[in-house]
Amino acid sequence: MTMTDTALSAERLAVPAAQPKQGPRVWLDLDQAELDAAYDQSKYAPNQALVQARRLVLSQRARAALGEPQRFAYGSSEIEALDVYRTRQANAPVSVFIHGGAWRNGRAADFAYLAEIFVHAGAHSVILDFTNIDAVHGDLMIMARQVRSAVAWVYKNAARFGGDPNRLYVCGHSSGGHLAGTVVSADWRKDFGLPGDILRGALLCSGMYDLKPVRLSARSNYVKFTDEIEHELSALRHLDRIACPLLVAYGTCETPEFQRQARDFAAALKAAGKPHELLVGEAYNHFEMLETLANPYGLLGRAVLAQMGLSRA
Amino acid sequence: MTKQPQPRRPLELSRRALFAGAAAGAVALAAEPAAAQRCAGPPPPHTKGPLVWRDLDKEELDDAYDQSVYAFNQSNIAERRRASSALALSILGQPERVAYGPTAIEKLDIYRTKRANAPVAIFIHGGSWRNGRASDNTYLAEPFVKAGAHYVMPDFINVLDAGGDLFPMVEQVRRAVAWVFRNAESFGGNPNALFLAGHSSGGHLGGCIVTTDWAAQGLPLDILKGALLGSGMYDLKAVRLSKRNQYINFTDAMEEELSAQRHLDRLHTPLILTHGTLETPEFQRQTREFYAAVKAAGKPVELRVGQGYNHFETQETLANPYGLMGRAAFEQMKLLA
Fold this sequence. Notes:
heterodimer, A: 313 residues, alpha/beta, Rossmann fold, 10 strands, globular, B: 337 residues, eight-stranded mixed beta sheet, two-stranded antiparallel sheet, 37% helix
């Protein structure tokens, strides 16, 4: 490690790297404490609460500017509903956003600030609500089933809000990046009776694509992993079902595991010959990455608008 | 005898920031204007010395004019700016570079838009008056160019090369603005649609520009149709008392002439002022008091506060039409996001 690397690490991170190993390795070169930290954003993002506070303020503002969204139920329980921020164009493309929050937190209304760039660029922005892991006693399958059925609902009902079902895109961040991974690797035909290619493209940002190390980490304290959950909800293990181009993104100030998950997933997509692009946010941490989606000239906003064919000349 | 601040290592800053994250996040929504958030929960042990400015002792005042004490991620943001500017340059292509004055540094970069007779945004960079080059900020140009405005960024001397004198910096930036007015048509710009933006020490310089006696140079009083001044300094008295006087040779004339707040009679440009709630207490105060003074003088001014943004993060928002500063500039220039 060079002096510069050391200085940058010290500046960016308040944690581990330099700490001596406390115990045996449990995953790659990480011991238990290191693995736990690598799945705990607060250990690597000192400004987590600040970025969250900004998001809430900006989302309030966006809802005031755009007007309250149309809200549709996509399932039987109360939480299974989605917000639609409509663009003016008829038969417009649709972007579906799946929020993060370690599978435990987050509501659609608090991510309204992501809608504005889509609406102004001529796409509808759909932001999903879905259950959280604590409300379903640790069963991640229920969350995945909800977001998959939400996307299926949007495909079948896009015309109700002026959307073009044949131009359907998905974005997810953090645990929402994981869930978006389960969406792009869903078995649409078997589970929903839909064509396998209902999605035109997706952005998976700062997510998890293989659950094995997550299962080994402290997250297993609140996620009741089973072999079935680990296997079915690891997008990396279902590359054959992926039928749309993917943008996979991470920031260089994220935890080592969140960086590795994205790199390994991109490498697997490459090996499988699946169209994809790996986006690296230099000097962005986990939470700052998402902020770049709210900017047409930010790392994620630029890439997603280009994917949807909505870039400004 | 005042106690000098101890040098702080980057790691300490990170740790201070860690605490501040939680503390500031909790209060960011609570109050407006929010209290300044330091990069630490419990402040470092400090025995209050004699007050040198308002309720601040020397160490507190020095810290309040040192962004690194309050912005833990300064170096990360610099890194992001470099990467973003390199990308923007690859998209926009090299700017036209034109001399606006006799010395080598007096050149400006023009990023042209396609629209004819287009409005022009002029950006004055910051960097404590010591650092920064136009080419570091290419990332700010793209949203404006794509929205139909030319983006002009002057280079100008830094205070160290000027022997601690701020006047040459201000004179150069004034010359640059005058050059743009006189030559806008040469690059497809509308001389009657010039707008200014500045951040940090560039906000200070911007304040000096909008209070220029343009008539004395035979130029229209409203040469600038609007200005967006972010996170700047508008009265130099407090700055003069701070440790910044170690590299700026303040004089009474400099303090008086280059404090925009004292020359509001010469202000003929509508202003939008911005700051973040996580900036130093003095940088928040400077903007608040300038806003109050301009308003009291009956001149058009608007204050926009970025909840949860520090000094450097506020500038990043200028590169986003939906961000704090970008939205303000687009509205001012009537550009569509």
